[in-house]
Write a structure and sequence with these properties.
Largest sheet of chain A: none
CATH superfamily of the largest domain in chain B: FAD/NAD(P)-binding domain
Largest sheet of chain B: 5 strands, parallel
Distance between the termini of chain A: 27 Å
Number of domains of chain B: 3
Shape of chain B: globular
Radius of gyration of chain A: 13 Å
Number of domains of chain A: 1
Strand content of chain B: 25-35%
Shape of chain A: globular
Helix content of chain A: 40-55%
Radius of gyration of chain B: 21 Å
CATH topology of the largest domain in chain B: FAD/NAD(P)-binding domain
Number of strands of chain A: 0
Structural class of chain A: mainly alpha
CATH class of the largest domain in chain B: Alpha Beta
Strand content of chain A: under 5%
Oligomer: heterodimer
Largest interface: A-B, 20 and 26 residues
CATH architecture of the largest domain in chain B: 3-Layer(bba) Sandwich
Distance between the termini of chain B: 53 Å
Order of helices and strands of chain A: HHHHH
Number of strands of chain B: 24
C-alpha cells in the first residue's frame, strides 16, 4: 500500500497490524478505504467476529467464516473482493492468515 | 489390563501400533487397532498410477501384515466416539472401552462438497487421483485422450500431500511430451492459494518450473461449483476456467466419525483440534491425534505422521506414567516432489523454517539436493516405496531425525539476524 495512514499504527511489511490492542474503528475504515471498501454493518459484524476468534486463538480459514452464521462464503467475497480472508484480517487488525502447508 | 485403541490402521496408525507394542508391557496393556478397510494403500504411489508407472498391485497390501501379532486388529467401522464414557461404538453394535485413544483416521476426498464436481461428467471428463479407483480410471482416460485443456484444480487449500497436484502437473507435462502430443495440450493449474505453494522460496522454485514447462497458473481461485454443461469451473467471485479434462483435488475432510462424535474443528472439515506440540487432543487428556486427522498447521503427509509418531510415543508413555508431556513436535515435513523426466526435487521444513536449499540428509555429500531438481532425488522417491513397506510403517528407525535439522541447509543472508 502506498498510502500513508493518517492514523499511524505499527504494521508489518505487508500492512498487518502488529499490536491487536491498538486497533481502532477509524484505523479500520482507513485501511478498508485503501481497498475501495466502505464498511457497512455487515462488514463490522465480520470484523468483530474475526477479532473475537483471534482473541480465542482460533486458526482461521474461509470455511470457518462461511460457517460463522454471519456470512456465507459468497457474501464474504462480495464484502471483501479479491482475497476476502487476507483483506478482512488486515482491516480487523489481526495477523495474516497462514495456510496449513 | 488396560487398553489403548488406535482408530485407523493407515500410515500413522500402523507406526503407532508397532512403536507402542515395542515399548509397553504386554501383561499390562492391550493394543487394539480398528479400521473399516483391511487394505493398506501406499498413497504416495497413487500419483504414478495415471501415467502407468505403477499398477494397483504395487501399492496395495493387507493392513494386518504390518501389525505386531498380539495387537488385535478389528475390521469394523466405528460409528461414534463418546469421550465422556471412554468408549467407541462400532456400527456392528459392538462397544469398545479404552483407557487411551489414538485417533489416526486420516483424511479423504469429498467431491460432494463442491456442487457439480460429482455430476454427470464425473469419471468421464472429471477425475481425481487421490483414490486408487480414481487414479486407475484416469490412467485409462489419459491413454486415449486426444488433447485439449487439461485443468488441475484444488478445491481447498488444506489437502493431503500438498505437493501432489504439482507433481501430477509436472508428470502430465512429461507424459504428453513423451507421447509426442504436448503441443495439443494446454495445462492450467488452478489453486485457491496465492501461488504454486505456500512457502516463499519453494513457491519461487516451483513457479519457475511451472513456467519452464509452459503451465498456466491461476491463483486465488476458490471454486464454488463446476458447470457440467459448459465444462467450466466457477469461483465464488464469478471467475471462470473452461476445461476439456478436469483433474480435481476435491475438498479433503477428516472422517465422518469425527463429525458424529462432535470432535471436529469449527470449519466443518472434521479435523480434530490438537495441541501442535504434544499431539494431545484439545478436548480430552486421554485422546491423542496423529497424522492427517489433526488440525495442525503442518502438511498432511506420511513423513509428518512418521515424525509425529516419535513424539507421540514418548508423550503417551509420559501420560501413562503421570508425567508432563515434554516431547514437542516441531512440524517437520519432508517431501519429494517429482518434476518429470526422471528428476525430482526435495523439501524439508517445519513450523518455523520454510524449505531452504542445501543437501540432504548429510551436509555437502547429500546425496539428495534440497530445492534442487536432480536424478538423485527421483531415485530417492522411488526407493522410498521399499522403505515405506519394509521400515516406515512397521515403526523401524529411519536415518532421519524427527526434529528438522539445519545441517546441510543453506540459510539465505536475509534470514540471518
Amino acid at each position: 500500500m502506498e498510502t500513508i495512514n493518517a492514523i499511524p499504527l505499527a504494521t508489518n511489511a505487508e500492512g498487518y497490524l502488529k499490536n491487536y490492542n491498538e486497533w481502532t474503528k477509524e484505523w479500520a475504515e482507513e485501511v478498508a478505504a485503501q481497498y475501495g471498501i466502505t464498511l457497512t454493518e455487515k462488514h463490522w459484524d465480520v470484523l468483530q467476529w474475526l477479532r473475537q476468534k483471534q482473541a480465542e486463538d482460533v486458526k482461521l480459514n474461509i470455511r470457518k467464516v462461511g460457517n460463522s452464521g454471519i456470512v456465507d462464503i459468497k457474501q464474504f467475497y462480495e464484502l471483501f473482493p479479491g482475497g476476502p480472508l487476507k483483506i478482512s484480517s488486515k482491516i480487523a487488525g489481526i495477523p495474516k492468515p497462514v495456510s496449513c502447508i | 489390563m488396560k487398553t489403548i485403541i488406535i482408530l485407523g490402521g493407515g500410515t500413522a496408525g500402523s507406526i503407532m501400533a508397532n512403536r507402542l507394542h515395542n515399548k509397553l508391557d504386554a501383561d499390562e496393556w492391550q493394543i487394539k487397532v480398528i479400521d473399516k478397510d483391511p487394505l493398506h494403500y501406499y498413497q504416495p504411489g497413487f500419483l504414478f498410477v495415471p501415467f502407468g508407472v505403477y499398477e494397483p498391485g504395487d501399492i496395495v497390501k493387507n493392513k494386518i501384515d504390518f501389525l505386531p501379532k498380539d495387537v488385535e486388529f478389528l475390521v469394523e467401522e466405528a460409528d461414534k466416539i463418546v469421550p465422556s464414557e471412554n468408549r467407541i461404538y462400532l456400527k456392528s453394535g459392538v462397544m469398545c472401552s479404552y483407557d487411551i485413544l489414538i485417533i489416526a483416521t486420516g483424511a479423504e476426498i469429498v467431491p460432494e462438497e463442491t456442487p457439480g464436481l460429482k455430476g454427470e461428467l464425473w469419471q468421464k471428463d472429471i477425475f481425481d487421483f487421490y483414490t486408487l479407483e480414481g487414479a486407475t480410471l484416469l490412467a485409462e482416460k489419459l491413454k486415449n485422450w486426444e488433447g485439449g485443456k487439461l485443468v488441475i484444480s484444488l478445491a481447498e487449500s488444506t489437502i493431503k500431500c500438498p505437493v501432489a497436484p504439482l507433481e501430477f502437473t509436472f508428470l502430465a507435462d512429461a507424459y504428453f511430451t513423451e507421447k509426442g502430443m504436448r503441443e495439443k495440450v494446454d495445462i492450467f493449474y488452478v489453486t485457491p492459494l496465492s501461488g504454486a505453494f505456500t512457502k516463499p522460496r519453494a513457491t519461487k522454485m516451483l513457479s519457475s518450473l511451472l513456467e519452464e514447462k509452459n503451465v498456466m497458473v491461476i491463483p486465488d481461485f476458490y471454486t464454488e461449483h463446476v458447470d457440467n454443461e459448459r465444462k467450466m469451473l466457477v469461483s465464488y467471485d464469478q471467475k471462470e476456467v473452461p476445461f476439456d479434462l478436469l483433474v480435481s483435488i476435491p475438498v479433503n475432510k477428516g472422517s465422518e466419525l469425527i463429525e458424529k462424535s462432535h470432535l471436529g474443528d469449527e470449519d466443518g472439515l472434521n479435523f480434530v483440534p490438537t495441541d501442535k506440540y504434544s499431539l494431545q487432543s484439545k478436548g480430552f487428556k486421554n485422546i491423542f491425534v496423529i497424522g492427517d486427522a489433526t488440525n495442525l498447521p503442518a502438511s498432511k503427509a506420511g513423513s509428518v505422521a512418521h515424525f509425529e509418531a516419535d513424539i507421540l510415543t514418548e508423550n503417551v508413555l509420559s501420560y501413562i506414567e503421570g508425567k508432563p508431556l515434554e516431547a514437542k513436535f516441531d512440524g517437520h515435513a519432508n517431501c519429494f516432489i517429482e518434476t518429470g523426466f526422471g528428476k525430482a526435487s526435495l523439501i524439508d521444513f517445519n513450523y518455523d523454517t520454510e524449505p531452504l536449499p542445501g543437501k540432504f540428509p548429510y551436509p555437502v555429500v547429500g546425496p539428495m539436493g534440497l530445492l534442487k531438481v536432480n536424478r538423485q532425488n527421483h531415485w530417492g522417491k522411488l526407493a522410498f516405496k521399499w522403505v515405506y513397506w519394509h521400515m516406515l510403517i512397521t515403526g523401524k528407525n529411519l536415518p532421519i531425525p524427527s526434529h528438522m535439522s539445519m545441517a546441510g541447509k543453506e540459510v539465505p543472508a536475509e534470514l540471518l539476524n
